[in-house]
Amino acid sequence: MHAASLTVDSPPAATVGIIGAGQLARMTHQAGIALGVDVRALTPRPTDPAVLAGAAVQLGTHDDLDALAALARGCDVVTLDHEHTPPDLLDELVAAGCCVRPSPAAASFASDKLLARRALARAGFPVPAFTEAPGGDPDAIEAVEAFARQHGWPVVLKAPSGGYDGRGVELVTHRGELDASRLAATPGRLLVEEAVPIAAELAVLIARRPSGWCATYPLVETVQRDGICHELVMPARVPTQIAHRAARIAKSLADGLDVAGILAVELFLTTDDELVVNEVATRPHNSGHATIDATATSQFENHLRGILDWPLGDTTLLAPTAATVNVLGPDHPVDLRRSLPVALEDPRVRVHLYRKAHRPGRKLGHVTCLAPSHDEALDAARVAAAVLTAP
Ligand code: ADP
To answer: Which residues are CB-contacts of 258 (< 8 A; sequence separation ≥ 6)?
Structure first.
């Protein structure tokens, strides 16, 4: 058979452009293969995780309209694997007739913590007490102090955009620490909020079609250290009524934002059993990685189905519990060629590696284990992740 007839006779079920080519794009591409969906990723680096997994690549950057337009050409829909694309460029793509999902409005909501806090509070969603301060200005110190007088120390300072994995978040425990605060000294807007007494960090993942059909995943409980998600379990170890409350919050947010694809809602469960919304992401999310192995349909497949306006897949958990442990780059170099076969000696663990260059603290992969109990799942996943990162 001629190559030409192959290309004509076997078009993809759909072509999806992804702005970014990191591990989220990589795992979305992986889900796309099963559905016959082609993924094309925009990145200046042909060694990014999605490209190494075989996704087509559009070389260019997310802040270049020509590159974005080149990505969109021939795609049924364009989606994102990070929040850094300037919203006005997404607006221009839409104005040029491209289908961008999530919509630029929903995407920009997720990319600006201050904008999101204000909109959530206005819409009546529970959020931590917060205010805006002018960073880099002597007034910033005064504004933070005034906020602390009202709400108490410590306070949390956040850069409204550009942060991830805890970068751009500072806990300031008393007045003396303020002078040394890097964020308070940085020019620009500053989000100042109360330090919430956290009993558990939770995340709801919900998939949505443009028509409004939603599929909610079992509630996830995450364990964060220094602002980085280290591990998570599913379902969360909280009473059922809290899980229902969290799901209701996520559903009304998904509808309010008119989300297409995955919406991830990070929540704090306070020591008083209140739920407050911390962050919102309008894309597949680290807290949903267990869904690849642990639920009938992964968050990545349901993101594709949602943005393509296809019926959503079943989100049922396939085992009593599942745990995922992130493989974070240790301070020493790692040799995965040696450690991977050792980690795989436990037949219960599922290892996912992103093929990212090693750097301390960087997410290099994750390990998931399904088991009859949370402890068993966590223990097995922790052991495998530790083996992978051993010196
Ligand atoms: P990032 O965007 O880098 O993930 P987050 O806003 O999610 O930053 O904050 C990172 C972590 O910092 C959270 O998971 C939580 O552990 C802690 N944190 C953030 N905001 C607060 C707060 N208001 N009170 C207490 N802890 C917080």
So the answer is: 103, 105, 106, 210
Q: Which value, to the nearest 10 degrees, does the dihedral of the CA atoms of residues 77, 82, 28, 302 take?
A: -70
d(CA 270, CA 297): 31
Percent of the chain with pLDDT over 90: 84
Q: Give the separation between CA 55 and CA 75, rounded to whole angstroms.
A: 13
**Among 226, 292, 225, 227, residue whose Cα is nearest residue 262:** 292
Mutate to test the pocket of ligand 1, among 228, 229, 278 (most ligand atoms within 8 A of CB): 278
Give dist(CA 106, CA 6) in Å, integer.
39
DSSP 288: G
* CA 215/CA 250 separation, integer angstroms: 11
252-296 pLDDT per residue, tens: 999 999 999 999 999 999 999 999 999 999 999 999 999 999 999
* Ligand 1 center from residue 292 Cα (angstroms): 25
Nearest-CA residue for ligand 1 atom 23 is 195
